[in-house]
Amino acid sequence: MLCCTYKMFLNIDMNLQKTLANKVKCSGIGVHSGILVNMLICPAEANHGIVFVRSDLRENNKIPALFDRVIDTSMCTKIANEYGASVSTIEHLMSALWGSGIDNAIIYVDGAEVPVMDGSSDCFINLIKQSGIVSQSEQRKFIEISKSVKIEMNDKSIVAEPDDSFSVNFIIDFDNQYIQAQSYNFNANDDFESEIGKARTFGFIKDVEYLKSIGLAKGASLDNAIAIGEDGILNKEGLRYKNEFVRHKILDCIGDLYLAGARIKGKIKAVKSGHQLNNLLLHKIFETKSASISSAA
After folding, report:
1. Domains in the chain: how many in total?
2. Less Cβ crowding at N or C end of the chain, within 10 Å?
3. Angle between helices 91-100 and 244-257 (to 10 degrees)
């Protein structure tokens, strides 16, 4: 199997495209805007892909979830259409859609940011479980990496190499005693929900005032992020995993790479990568024709 599934979904033919069985909705705060957002995730027909719709806008409000629609990678991934309609912080939801096996969906949001919920993909995964998943008539498509592609920026890098399946090996190294160096490897046949989906975003208390001054992190709280202070982790419940920080970086990476428009077959190796490098990698893959599109066997 080339994509991660939950045990409850094992009877689904993973060679076929998938969508939700029913509409599901949620409401929550945007981590950067601090504004309450309502979101509705709906089924979509085969070959539709993932498309966001700004339901608060009357026209020109559809935004395909594709790498070449990314307009900002500062602290999150933001996409926009040619008319200026945009939606940000899409990476946690995109990762949940990948991990749940969803190829096609329409996502209505009545604001410019996806709700952060608890800072992980967990709430979105549970919504998709609540909806159920249905197989569609069309074969699933894959982006097959045909030759190695690398993006480097100072001490950061991300590489895509040919492989028969999908995996992400990620290394982080923070100059902070509560994070330090961490590494983790996730394979497509691992359980996404338990291994990656619950890992939360994180930030440093010392950076909060600056981020708010530039219009970011206005909705950040201990309910939707791991907060790291001078004396350690401020969240009373502590960490969900000993290495939750690097697992969340993998969560972000998977969500960003799902903007390829299909699942990737390839081995991803990342060192200190973030939204910018993740997106640059996709641009380079398609610009250099280092991948081909195939259908499931």
Report:
1. 2
2. C
3. 80
Structure tokens at 56: 């608060």
Whether 229 is in a domain gets the answer: yes
Per-residue pLDDT of the chain (297 residues; tens, 9 = 90+): 223 333 333 345 779 999 999 999 999 999 999 999 999 999 999 999 999 999 999 999 999 999 999 999 999 999 999 999 999 999 999 999 999 999 999 999 999 999 999 999 999 999 999 999 999 999 999 999 999 999 999 999 999 999 999 999 999 999 999 999 999 999 999 999 999 999 999 999 999 888 888 888 899 999 999 999 999 999 999 999 999 999 999 999 999 999 999 999 999 999 999 999 999 999 999 999 999 988 876
Tell me the pTM: 0.94
The residue annotated as part of the active site, out of 32, 48, 275, 283, is 275
283 labelled as ligand-binding? Answer: no
Distance CA 204, CA 245 (A): 12
Residue type, 202: F
Known catalytic membership, residue 32: no
CATH number of the domain bearing residue 203:
3.30.1700.10
Does 231 appear as a known binding residue? Answer: no
Q: Per the structure block, which two tokens stand in for 158?
A: 């991300």
